[in-house]
């Protein structure tokens, strides 16, 4: 199998901000007009704040100075109306943005889930599961924060900055120029510091993915770690990843928090200078009215705040964009190809559990637009098949064999000989480089994956059970099954008795991959799942490896019923499981070196004979 990439790829910064923003905008779909409405509401909120403070100066210089109390009342009510409208706009865009962001994240997570299901198995062989999980959790969470809070606030902060610049110029251009100098210094600092923040925040996201991957690996391997006393080594390995995150996190938060003291300090100096210089202008008559001075000082005092908010929200958005790029890289991974045109079609309804073949056929399209129906039998043929996970390193070399309808074919050989690979190629988990694999005389690459895999039932060594009841787990292979059919399948797999002894019987809940059951019980449930699904091909990949000898004998009798009228492909280390096979194929280094029945191979006195007599062992 290809080696898993255990270290998530590092990205120092978003590589294409505008392209990423464009892709995110696409997720708003038909609700884009609401996003435009949010922008309008935010702009008005900023206008209300800026224009309200500017009007305050006029009220002081006109209504109060001239003792125009009716005018004062009118101006006061106008100010209240402006501010109240601003507050209402603030509440409106906040609510709209929350609903929009949750809608976007719902659609994004749905697309992630669908894409995850459509990726080829080879992708999961080469990428750590913890890294994949981080796309659904950490990277999406950064996007949540940015859309819920930062998107609207960064527009608001920008509008406040522009509005403040305009108001200061209207009051007095010379006073404004002095403050523009301070604002320019603040802006330069923000640009330089933001580059640092962006670098370390994106590093932090990548390190979180590494931590997820490590934690997922440690949890899955807890039993092995304890068995070999590797707790300390595991902790040290985790600590290295954690330290990398600590470094990136400390740097990112240091540069983020640096904005506040620097900008606040500069704003205090700016405010002090504004008060002194503004007073001089007022005394010398270069600025008209105490109201104008008040408006000037208020705007100067507020001018640093939008810079501070702008910086904080820019960092959040840049972090979200970095996470979004990781998500989009995942979404851009090539999905499993399904160019098949041959469908598995239903011919009639089931009357019993064992008439799968009579109910289905292959619908093969013809060049003239018509189609033919090929009976579903379950015949498998390999013709000179060569396969490699990595180009140039062949795992299977010119493999040829056949499995006729109803035959039992067994594969024997050392680990790495290619037994499980053969099984994976039949179901098209991987595509071959050379040769042909025929199913009922049809090349599997021409079959639609859904039909191909529905016609095959598989029990592997690594049993996976889902969170749910025992009944639901057995029905996983055939969800519309009745309770009676589930019980019948459980009896075939010889697990009905232990299920009934559980507190809630078939309604017993399974958690954490069924770890509240023994290994043998979990394997028996997997066999029951296969018994419930009755397609013509049954694959058993070390299916009895986790069952004790006594249980194996009982299960073997039940499996004789399960395997009736089905093509069975068996991989097993226990020769007792394969000796009654129609043909046994002994694999070594990706080649079939011996083939024949149990008796034929014993007479040959070759590798299988040595294994059977205990002179050699499978590794």
Describe the structure concisely.
By secondary structure, this protein is an alpha/beta fold. It is built from 20 helices and 15 strands. β7 (434-439) and β8 (442-443) form a beta hairpin.
Task: Provide mean pLDDT, rounded.
Answer: 82
Task: Please give the count of helices.
Answer: 20
The chain-level structural class is alpha/beta
- Give, in spatial order, the strands making up the sheet with the most strands: 9-12-13-6-14-15
Helical residue percent?
55-70%
* Shape, per Cα inertia axes: elongated
Largest sheet: 6 strands, mixed
Radius of gyration using CA atoms only: 35 Å
Oligomer type: single chain
* C-alpha termini separation: 17 Å
What is the tally of beta strands?
15
Notes on the structure:
This protein is of the alpha/beta class and 619 residues long. The chain is 61% helix and 12% strand. It contains 20 helices and 15 strands. It has helices at residues 17-26, 32-64, 69-118, 121-126, 129-171, 173-220, 222-227, 231-283, 290-331, 356-359, 419-426, 449-454, 470-474, 483-492, 496-501, 519-532, 549-562, 575-578, 598-604, 607-612, and strands at residues 343-346, 360-365, 371-375, 380-387, 396-403, 408-413, 434-439, 442-443, 456-459, 468-469, 509-510, 537-541, 567-571, 583-588, 591-596. The strands form four sheets. Strands 9-12-13-6-14-15 form a six-stranded mixed sheet. It has a four-stranded antiparallel sheet with strand order 5-4-7-8, with helices on one face. The chain has a three-stranded antiparallel sheet with strand order 1-2-3. Helix 1 (17-26) crosses helix 9 (290-331) and helix 14 crosses helix 16. It is elongated and about 120 Å long. It starts with 16 loop residues before the first helix and ends in a 7-residue tail after the last helix.
